[in-house]
Design brief:
Elements: E1 6-11, H1 15-25, E2 31-37, H2 40-50, E3 54-57, H3 66-75, E4 81-86, H4 91-99, E5 104-107, H5 112-123, H6 131-139, H7 155-165, H8 170-177, H9 181-195, H10 200-209
Parallel strand pairs: 1-2, 1-3, 3-4, 4-5
Helix pairs in contact: 2-3, 4-6, 7-9, 7-10, 8-9
Length: 214
Amino acid sequence: MADKVIRVLLVDDHQVVRRGLRTFLEIQDDIEVVGEAADGAEGVARTEELKPDVVLMDVKMPGMDGVEALRKLRELANPAKVLIVTSFTEQRTVVPALRAGAAGYVYKDVDPEALAGAIRSVYAGHILLQPEVADALLSQDVGTGAQGRGGSLTEREREVLGLIADGRSNREIARALVLSEKTVKTHVSNILMKLDLADRTQAALWAVRHGLTT
């Protein structure tokens, strides 16, 4: 991964924000800004067209907002990781985006180096959740449809789920458990299916709730 250039798409309705993000990110050796979009609909179209690794997405935008765009990308099964970049700190703004499939979020006043680190982190498969938002998600019963289904998991799947909750990527899980990445991906798919969960974020929260963190 060290030699991989992370392809990034910027989605924000403020041109000055996009320009600022591009100016900083373009000096990073391992990050390439491949395009921009001014609203959610354009962001979805550009994500499908350009196939970025990571999308930096604002939440509040005219027309299709960031949450709706996230839902559309999920419907399209687009593999891009979405990192929310927002000026809104209210849980009612951030939580729906995370539930819609965002890999995490940062604030627009984030330190530039921290932003680059966040991009690298979500690209590697990690989930960026600040404690107060994780608590809010848990309090809203994310994954309650999975109550009582934990017993259907194999011991290996429970190990994988615990490592997901610790923010490990598939590659890191494979190394920790001495498995192939393909096998880990199969375990993750089985976990989501058995627990009726939509994504790794919900799986991680389910694991925290049920004491499966390592």
